[in-house]
Amino acid sequence: MAEEFDVLIIGAGLSGIGAAWRLRHERPGTTFAVLEARDAIGGTWDLFRYPGVRSDSDMFTLSYPFRPWRGVESLAPAEAIRNYIQDTADEGGITPHIRFGSRVETASWSGGRWTVRLTDGRTLTCRFLYACAGYYDYARGHQPDFAGLDDFTGRFVHPQSWPEDLDHTGKRVVVIGSGATAVTLVPAMAPAAAHVTMLQRSPSYLTVLPGRDAVADALRRVLPAKAAHRVARAKNIVLSQAFYQLARRRPDRVKALLRRFALRYLDDPAYVDEHFTPAYQPWDQRLCVVPGGDLFEAIRGGKASVVTDHIERFVPEGIRLRSGRTLEADIVVSATGLSLLPIGGVTLTVDGQVVDPGTRVAYRGLMLSGVPNFAYCIGYTNASWTLRADLSHRYVLRLLSYLDKHGYAAATPKETPGNRRPLLDLTSGYVQRALDRFPQQGDKDPWTVRQNYLRDVVTTPRADVSRDMSFEESR
């Protein structure tokens, strides 16, 4: 017999634990379980183990609104974030509800319930299914097919599968990439390495932020922890949203500002123009954060450098570039991006018909057209993931309460005619490679996905859960 629950949550990372906390504390009579494919809490923050791995969003907005961040770092290391998630699960009574080693393979809707089958053959059923597994492919990152890779005599690694035995002390390291992972790795590896080179095809925009939040530190000295957290959180939300709007409306002004940040550390206009001046506009791709200017400091100190060029092929001693130059390396790190995977790779079927997420439209950015009693959680592209995730959790709880109040068994979003466009609005390669696999969004509410927390935090808690929704009465 399959175990039965009111709600099943897929994933015990930042989102899944947040959803479980809301569910347990705001709907105490609801039965639920958290299905975690791996053997640990933390999701992304437990998976990635490369040197220096950290948040690129401030912890006052990345942490939960119901549990203050008490760490000293505003841009925290993965271990601190992982411990925070674990402590939240333990203190919130969520840990006993987590089923570790439970990878969901399929979920089938029929007869008013989801039947969830795990890869080990176990089966569970639920009234409502909530996917909180993010959108990264945990099994593998993106890996280009580099010519001549087998000829390379050094060590080749991908950050998503960082080997525990890798010692880069005194080694020549080349990090391929210019995104958040590369920007994190270079200054983390530079002190011990002989030299670290960041090899990029094209530059990314970098913004310098302090590792600690001076305002938050001051607030903590005079206010209780929860009050200080709320004020710091509100301050950071307003500043980040204002900066995003400025970048979209006055891109030239923001480009000049970011260039000044780089020049403040490097004092070399030609170097900055060559290696830190992208061809795209700010926030066409997510900005990379440099805590305390650590990347620039490593470059200025001679422990790191940047090369902007294309790879022609790998050779035994390193990488030959299109310009003819060869970068000699003992270790090459392929920080070439992530692979995206909708709904954690779970195959959904509704009344026997397989659901292709790429053909569906996102309802309020968290449900799929034509799919009953199902929600998925994704965060903002221009702000902390948790800001949007927590709004999604609260919306799901409101929908469950609406179903209970009116005696409904199921709610199914009904798509209304209109134009479609991509769900994720970034030009980054890892996003563009996967667009056809993700749902799209429409051109009018409630089928649009806004990247505006200040607006969403006002409208989402008041949104009409019955709009463009069909309901099935309980039998």
From TrEMBL:
Its cofactor is FAD. One of its GO terms (molecular function) is NADP binding. Belongs to the FAD-binding monooxygenase family. The keyword Signal does not apply. Coiled coil: none annotated. It comes from the Bacteria. This is Putative FAD-dependent monooxygenase. SUPFAM superfamilies: FAD/NAD(P)-binding domain. Pfam families: FMO-like, NAD_binding_8. Keywords: FAD, Flavoprotein, Monooxygenase, Oxidoreductase.
